[in-house]
Please model this.
Amino acid sequence: MQHKFSMYNHYGTLRDGSVLIYNVLSSAVAIMSQEEFSSIHKAVPLDAEADLFSAASEMGFVVPAEEDELSKVLALRNSNNYSDKRAGFQILPTTGCNARCFYCYEQGFKASTMTRETIDSTVEFILNYCENMEEVTIAWFGGEPFTCENYIAEISKRLTAEFDRRGTRYFANVITNGALISEKNIDAIVKDYRISSVQITLDGRGEKHLARKGFLDKSVSYQLILNNIALLTRHNVHVMVRINVDRENLEDCLAIFDDLAVLDADKDNLWPYVAPLYSDRSKPNQDCFGKDELSDVFTKVYKKMIDTGFIQTVNGLPMNFSNATCCAKMLNNFVISPEGDISKCEHLLNVPEEVIGHVSSGIVFNSAMAKWSDANIPEQCKTCSYLPVCQAGCTAAETRGFGFGRCSYIAFVHDAIIEAANYLLERSEE
Ligand code: SF4
Ligand code: SF4
Model:
């Protein structure tokens, strides 16, 4: 059979002369000699390398010559985006917040909170919409959702009672600043709200975090947030610690990994990662990194994560297939605002033409809904070697003009990945 080199391979030469190759569709990673790589690159097996070639084929580095790799990625993408078995709802019980992050895109929004009527309609809407679903995920978002914890409690109770009766699998997660989590509500978070995954943001170490967050309650400390992260992990909640970096706090943020490494946490549930802050193109913030700088930034980040044990093998680097990058593109995924308006993306909350319905009246398949349901992807993504991991990126970032545009940061950190692999290898040889 004729083969070809997969269009989703990425590779680089390591300092010892060997080649690191990874494929973002199969998620395979390998290190091989230049000669072996040359055989695979040309997709021509030499007799002596027959075993290697068949391994490369199993790992997806070479594929049958007639394979339409793009169509395969799109088929997987569509099976995920158009599943009629799963639904997701991002609920904002409030846009009010107990902090004032300087970068918050909700700045300028008038803070609002759900009314009794909207709570009732939200529950009814979700239960009706999910009549035949096998799995439902609720994502709590705000503002700070825990400032309305009684709403989380009530909506969770009513939804779980009915979904349990129906035998529907129920999952919940929350994006929070972590200040309102404590020993007092941890049992309710886990058992009553069934929250199994939490994202907490850190903006720096110690005072830097507090200065950037601007908590209204001045008794909130950096250590309190760390303690709450640890508390969640010990209750078997998966905690993604999002560390927001820019030029002004990068070195400080790297030190957060030292603090996390010594935390009294269940490390299997602790997943820190770094996210570069971004600004609107109309109001560029000079402190934000440009995409050309991301490889240098992530070279430092990955080295620190390796030193502190948060990356132990090359599998900890972003080389893997992902089918879940933009929830707005999933047909049965919706954002519910405190007013009960339904849209597809939390970044488009204040955009009237993006509203696709209301919890009291349901969804209208209008032009906004049609746009988000379109299976087509942009032309540049069809030939892009990062498609299986980026999934055609962020439409909101492109259309609303923020961040790095449509493309994921992953498309800009190849050199950092190769350098991290070098560093891991050198450490393992010490
Ligand atoms: S369009 Fe962008 S911001 Fe909106 S859900 Fe998708 S990835 Fe997230
Ligand atoms: S958005 Fe950018 S990085 Fe992502 S698949 Fe499209 S071209 Fe590639």
